[in-house]
Amino acid sequence: MKDFLAFTLIAIFSIFLGSQITEGVLLVPYWQSLSPTAFYEYYDTFGSVISRYYSFLTIIAVLIPFSLSIYCYYKRSDGLRYSFVSSFFAILIITIFYIYFKETNQLFHARAFDTDQLKTVLNTWEFWHWSRVFFEIHSLIFLILTFNILKQNSKKVNAAN
């Protein structure tokens, strides 16, 4: 059961990461290729759907390292250190959203940028997006390390019994 839970939680976080990579590889270049009018029409049509999807997935994914940290603390696990590092990167993921993406996405809905501004903003958006992906990769790595330590500790306990 513990292996299934670990696999499921890692899979959920990986789906989040994969969807972020997909957004960066497919959607961002597409948005950058559009005229401002076409971009704003696209964003009016799909922006709220994209936002709801990523909001839900981000919340679920970011809660995983925090929940694991609480579990490791409660169990006094050697994995606590790694779960804290994973949680730190998760905090960065959320922080970047609130510092940059939330307002910028609202400005997209308001059609606030002219042609030159939109190109610059989309380039900045892309930079922060890939920064988040970088932090997500690191959070996932430390999440996996935590689960590996928990599994090793579980094997030691089972061997001792």
Overview of the structural elements:
- The protein is an all-alpha fold and 161 residues long.
- It has one domain (2-148).
- The protein is 92% helix and 0% strand.
- Helix 1 (2-33) runs antiparallel to helix 2 (36-75) and helix 2 (36-75) packs parallel to helix 4.
Alpha-beta content class? mainly alpha
Mean pLDDT: 94
- What can be said about the biggest beta sheet? none
How many H/I helical runs?
Answer: 4
Q: How many angstroms separate the termini?
A: 19 Å
* Count of strand segments: 0
**Strand composition percent:** under 5%
**Per the principal axes of the C-alpha atoms, what is the gross shape?**
elongated
Portion in helices: over 70%
Outline:
The protein has 161 residues and is an all-alpha fold. The chain contains 4 helices and no strands.
Fold blueprint:
Blueprint: H1 2-33, H2 36-75, H3 80-109, H4 115-160
Keywords:
161 residues; mainly alpha; 4 helices; elongated
